[in-house]
Amino acid sequence: MGISTLAISRRLEARGFTESQAEGVAEELVDIVENSDLVTKDFLRAEMAGLEAKLIAKMGDLKTELIAKIGDQKNDTIKWLISLQFGSLALTVGLIYFLLNYFLLKR
C-alpha cells in the first residue's frame, strides 16, 4: 500500500500545520500504517474466496457422508420391515391353523 508522505504533509499544511509539523505527522502516520497488520480489500477478498471454496468442499463431503448414512438406515429399515412382515405372516398362519383346528375338532 503506497502512501505518500508528501501528499499528507501538503494537506496538513493547507489546514494550518507548519511544514515541520506536517512532515512529522505524515512520517508517523506512514510508519504506523506500514508497521501494522492492516488488511487490504484485495487480500480480504482472496481469503474469503479461499474460505468459501473450502466450505463448499466440506459441504460436499458432508452431503456425501449424509447420503451414505441415509442409505444405510434405509437398508436397515427395509430389513426390519421384511422381518416384521414374515413374523406377521407366520403369526397369521399360525392363528388361522389354530382356529381351524379348534373349530374343526370341536365338531
Describe this structure in words.
- There is one protein chain.
- Helix content is 86%, strand content 0%.
- Helix 1 crosses helix 2.
- The protein is mainly alpha-helical.
- It has three helices and no strands.
Question: Gist?
Answer:
The chain has 107 residues and is mainly α. It is built from 3 helices and no strands.
How are the SSEs placed, and which strands pair?
Blueprint: H1 5-14, H2 19-34, H3 41-106
Helix pairs in contact: 1-2
Helix and strand content put the structural class at: mainly alpha
Number of strands: 0
Discrete helix count: 3
Q: β content, as a range? A: under 5%
**Helical content class:** over 70%
What does the radius of gyration come to?
40 Å
Low-pLDDT stretches are none
Please give a handful of descriptors for the protein shown.
mainly alpha; 0% strand; 3 helices; 107 residues; rod-shaped
